[in-house]
Each structure stands twice: as C-alpha cells, then as structure tokens.
Write a structure and sequence with these properties.
heterodimer; A: 6 helices; flat; B: globular
Chain lengths: 171, 493
C-alpha cells in the first residue's frame, strides 16, 4: 500500500488527537472534562477518515461523504485535461516549488532569529528577487533599501515598537 | 433631543473634523496592517489626547477605532490576511472575489455593509440606553455558554459536503484553544514544558500563518497574479458592490442585529461576531454550497456584523463601565484620562458626551466608507502584480505582524508552523473556517460551561434566555436538513 502525503497527514492528526487525550487523563476531573468531550469524538472522526483514505474498499463511502466541498476552489479558469506525461511534469514542478518556497520561508525565519529584522529583511529581498530572476541585482538592492527604510520608520520610530534584534544583536 | 443636536453641532467645526479624518486615516492603515488592529491603535492614540477637549478627544479616538475594522477588511480581501481578528471571516469570500478580479466590488461591499452595520449599531445604542441596566443584569455564564455553543454549532453547517474533514478541523480548533492555563481550575494544560504556552496559542500569529503565509505559499506555487484572470474589473464594480449590499438588505440588517447583540455581551468579542454572522449567512442562503467561492453575501455578513458590534460594545462600556471588548477597555482608560466616569450617571449628567460618541462613530463610518470607495480602484492594482513580486513582502509583513503582538520571537515560529498547517489544510481540503470558529469559541465555551455548571448544575438550560438560545441553536443545526427535505419534496413534485 503506497502512502500518499494525505495519509501521512491524517496519521499525524491521529497521533495528535491521541496525545491530547492521553495528556488530558493526567489532569483533575474538571480540567479534563471538556477536552475529553471534544477529544474523543475527534479521535473517532480522524480514525474514520484514516480508514476511508487507506482502505480501498471504503473508497465508495468516501465519495458519498466528500461529495461537495463547501469551500471549493472557484472555477476561474477552464482546466484542460492533461496527458499522463504532462501531469507528471506538472506534479514534479509543483513538488519542486513547494520545497523551494518552504526553504525560502525557513531561511527568512532563521535569518530573523539569527540577525534580527533589520538585516534579515533586506538580505531576504535581495536574495529572493535576484535568485528567482525577478529583478536584477541593483534593482533588488534598491527595493530592499526602500523596504527596510519604510519598515524602520513605521515600526521603530512611529509606533515605537522595538524590532527583534536577533541572537547576534548586530544592530 | 436637544442634547443630540448640540453634540452634533459641537463636532461640526474644522478642527474636530480634521482630527476625525486623521483618526480615520490612522485607523485604516493600522487596521490593514496585520498584527496591529484596534487595541494597538487606541493604545498609541490615548497619550495624544491629554490636552484635548473631552468631546473632541472621544471623537478622535472613536473615529480611529471605527475605521480599524474596515481597514482590516481591505487586507483580508486583497491579500487574504485579516488585518484584525474581526476580519477573518471576510477572507473566506473576499479573497476569492479578488482572485476573480472582483477586488473593487468586494471592497465596495465591505465599505457599504460596514457603513450600514455601523449606523445600525449606533441607532441601537441610542434606542437601548433606557433599557441598558435590565439587559446587562439578565446575561450570565449560562447565556454566554449557549452563545458560544450556538457559534460552535455553525461548524456543522460549514462542514456540509466534506463533513468529516470540517468537523475534524473544527474540533482540532477547539482542542488547540485549550492549550495553556485553564481559566477555571488554573491547571496548566498541554504546555509540554514550555513557558510560551502558559497563555495558550495567540490568535493573531496563528491566523496570520493560517491565511497569509499559507496563501503566499500557494501563490508562489501556482504562479501568476492574485487575480487569477489577470485583470481587475472596470470601475463600475465598486458601484456593483454598493448595489450588492442593498440587493441583500435583509441579510445586511440581520447580521447588523447579530453584531449589535454580540457587541452588547461583554467579553465575547468581534471575532465571534463576524464568524457567527458568516455562519448565519450560510444557513439562510438558498445556495450555501457557493460560500467560500467568492460571493457577495460572504463579505456582506461579517462586515455588517463587525461594525454593528462597535455600537453594541459601547452600551455596557458607557452604561456600566464594563468594557464590551478589549478595545473598549482601553477606551475606559481614555475616559479616566479625560475625567469622565462611565456608568449610569453618563445618561444623566454627561448625556451630551454620549451623543458625541454616537455621532463620532456614525460620522467615522460615513467618512471611512467614502475613503474606501474612492481608493478601492487604486488598491485593487495589487491583485494584478506578479505573485512572485508580492510574496516576499507579504511574508515579511506577516512575520512583522506576528512579532508586534507581544514582541516575542516565538510568535514568528507559531505563524510559520500555522502557515505550514494552513497550506496543508488547503491542499488536502480541510476547511480553515471551522478551525477558526473552534479556536475562537473553545475557551469561551469551556469557561462559561464550568461556571454555569458550578452555579446552577444542568438546570442552567432552563433559565429563560438560555432556553431561547438552546432552541435557536437546535434550529441552527436542524434547519438546513429540514430545508433540504422540503427542497427534495418540491423537486419530486
């Protein structure tokens, strides 16, 4: 049975629900009452969802339950049917882009932690725009300087909010 | 009547009008910037009022405060980032409208329904003044509990379709809300040894991650512009947005009533108002399956309720000195600075001050709406910029917004983690709306259940107002199914 990322997510939710319920048992009766009232049905529902996703013979029930998604994507563009090769290429590109943006966000979060907002922000903008070939290097530098100036004056000077200086505290 | 007229006349001078406009501009900007919002706006403006005349000072503060909610709707619509917690439901349909090139129409809807809701709230404020005391004394913990339960029952409505995933999402939202100190027993729950979780997960960083960061991940991957059709609609669409509000005037009025009632109840808050109003719109719509795809009703409902709540929140604040919301608590501080004592005496010795506040909120709503409508077309240009140009700025703004809430780095990590969760929810079709509802109402539900249970036991459900709310909640759950049965019978016939 091949595990899809959807199955992994549902399994993760199952573990989280179990952790909540087991942790609740340690608390006094009043403190654990409502969490258990909510947690036990949650565990049951996640388990049902896990079964629907992993056991092939349950798939027909899944179609009935997940018939119409209330928050479905609006049909803005007509999507033409893709061939298998085109579909694989698309999925590979999507997977690559997912990893890319995740790395960029991790980089930004790490940079803020290490060197603070005032250095991380312009550095991030320069790297993001130049490495993604959106702007040339000198344009990226200009945009980053304008951005950090606005951020500094708005948050630090006007609002009096001290921006995080980072672990190294360079500024 | 003469007090009302003299209060209006006192506001209509150049100095006061300019100060009000400055307050509105500040409120719009602060509202649009995630993480700031009404509390920060008022907190930063209160020190400026020391030397002002009390009526002018109140007009200035209330103008800024009234504009914050509308400012928050602009960022909800354009970049799927609720500027304040009270605008989260506006994202559900406002942003999809922007994706369809209808951002100007959505802003027109938000501006107009905010105006109608805001004016309705102040009308109720004036009408309810004689009844304030009796009302406030009748509402207790069992009523709060039922209001929260009514809100949670909306999860079942919004789960229609992908039922199991919707309920899972909603229940997880409730479970997440239990992290931290239990407000009733003082027991520390689910902190896993971290001091950061003592106060639980903060709402704003979580929401910024869930909506803004998740959407930017999606925008980077999908490419293109926010407006998926690559253009924005012509100028007439702002007018179309205004017309939408009057086409759905019944919904606008009902949500304004709902918002006002929620505002009157202290401690429930604006986030609850906009979510409940959204749920009500879904419940009463002939086409509930369209919600979330970018329909006007999905923007009208929360925005009308948001602004109506402000008028309602002034009732307990002014009448009893009990703040109707956290921003009203700051306003109470402003009263002290100005030498005004809130309470029943406000309605006798200081009634002109009360009318000044009423007119200030009304005028701020009118002027704020005008500014919003005029600037709508300029603001919508954001939706046709290349997505990869916008992504880094929104990410930076999101992390800044998460940080300024409490100036803790951990909030940035929370926003990041919820960003991943939000993207996962979008990818695997777990509705975020139900999660947010559960997250907001979980604590309110538990706290008031515990208090009501210890005071009354299960006979709390027999209290008159509670019993009415029980019936309304049951109808909320059952009504869509009954409606479906009648529709099916009609089709069969």
């Amino acid at each position: 049975m091949k595990l899809r990322s959807e199955n992994i997510l549902t399994f993760f939710l199952l573990c989280v629900a179990i952790i909540f319920i087991v942790s609740s048992l340690k608390y006094e009766s009043t403190a654990r009452l409502v969490p258990l009232i909510v947690g036990i049905p949650t565990l049951f529902l996640v388990f049902i969802q896990f079964l629907l996703e992993t056991i092939p013979s349950f798939s027909k029930f899944r179609k009935n339950i997940e018939g119409v998604n209330v928050f479905g994507k609006p049909k803005i563009l007509q999507e033409r049917k893709l061939g298998k090769e085109e579909n694989d290429q698309r999925n590979n590109k999507k997977s690559r882009d997912e990893k890319n943006i995740l790395l960029w966000i991790i980089l930004l979060v790490f940079a803020i932690w290490l060197i603070g907002f005032l250095i991380a922000i312009p550095l991030f903008i320069i790297l993001f725009f130049s490495l993604n070939n959106i702007f040339k290097l000198h344009q990226s530098i200009l945009v980053s300087l304008i951005t950090i100036t606005i951020v500094y004056f708005l948050f630090d000077k006007l609002l009096g909010l001290t921006l995080y200086k980072g672990l190294l505290g360079l500024l | 009547m003469t007090d009302a007229i003299s209060a209006l006349v006192s506001l209509l001078n150049l100095n006061t009008i300019l100060l009000m406009m400055a307050g509105i501009a500040i409120g719009l900007v602060f509202g649009a910037l995630p993480g700031l919002g009404g509390n920060v706006t008022l907190a930063l403006l209160v020190p400026l009022i020391w030397s002002m005349d009390p009526k002018v000072a109140l007009a200035f503060l209330l103008s800024a405060h009234a504009a914050v909610t509308f400012g928050g709707s602009i960022s909800s619509i354009l970049i799927n980032t609720p500027g304040t917690g009270q605008n989260v439901a506006t994202c559900f349909d406002g942003f999809p409208m922007a994706q369809q090139g209808k951002a100007a129409r959505a802003i027109g809807i938000a501006a107009t329904s905010s105006l109608v809701g805001g004016l309705f709230g102040v009308i109720i404020l004036v009408a309810m003044m004689p009844l304030m005391k009796r009302m406030m004394m009748a509402i207790g913990s069992s009523e709060y509990f039922m209001l929260a339960l009514m809100g949670v029952s909306i999860i079942s409505l919004l789960s229609k379709g992908s039922m199991i995933k919707g309920l899972i999402s909603g229940f997880f939202g409730i479970l997440i809300s239990f992290i931290g100190f239990d407000p009733v027993t003082g027991v520390l729950r689910y902190s896993f040894g971290s001091v950061y979780f003592y106060e639980g997960i903060k709402f704003i960083p979580a929401i910024i991650g869930l909506f803004a960061i998740a959407e930017m991940v999606n925008l980077y991957i999908s490419g293109g512009t926010i407006a998926k059709i690559g253009r924005v609609e012509s100028k007439e669409s702002v007018i179309e947005g205004i017309k939408d509000v009057f086409r759905n005037f019944g919904l606008t009025l009902r949500c304004s009533i709902l918002g006002t009632i929620i505002g009157i109840v202290p401690g429930v808050g604006g986030t609850v108002a906009n979510l409940l109003a959204y749920g009500h719109a879904v419940q009463t719509s002939k086409h509930p399956e369209l919600f979330g795809t970018g329909i006007p009703e999905g923007v009208i409902a929360p925005e009308a309720a948001n602004n109506a709540k402000e008028g309602g929140a002034l009732i307990p604040t002014v009448g009893f000195g009990i703040p109707g919301s956290s921003s009203m608590a700051i306003l109470l501080g402003a009263f002290i600075v100005l030498g005004i004592v809130p309470g029943p005496d406000m309605l006798t010795t200081n009634v002109e001050v009360v009318y000044t506040m009423v007119w200030a909120v009304a005028l701020a709503n009118i002027i704020g709406t005008g500014i919003g409508i005029i600037s709508a077309n300029k603001l919508t240009k954001l939706t046709i910029l290349d997505g990869k140009v916008i992504v880094p700025f929104i990410l930076i703004l999101s992390f800044l917004g998460a940080f300024v809430v409490a100036q803790m780095y951990m909030d940035i990590l929370v926003a990041f983690i919820f960003g991943i969760i939000g993207y996962g929810m979008k990818k695997f079709k777990y509705p975020k709306a139900t999660f947010v509802i559960g997250f907001v109402l979980g604590r309110v539900l538990e706290r008031n259940f515990q208090i009501a249970n210890s005071c009354y036991g299960y006979s709390m459900l027999m209290r008159p107002i509670t019993l009415i709310l029980v019936i309304v909640t049951l109808l909320t759950i059952v009504y869509p199914f009954i409606k479906q049965i009648f529709v099916k019978r009609g089709d069969a016939a």
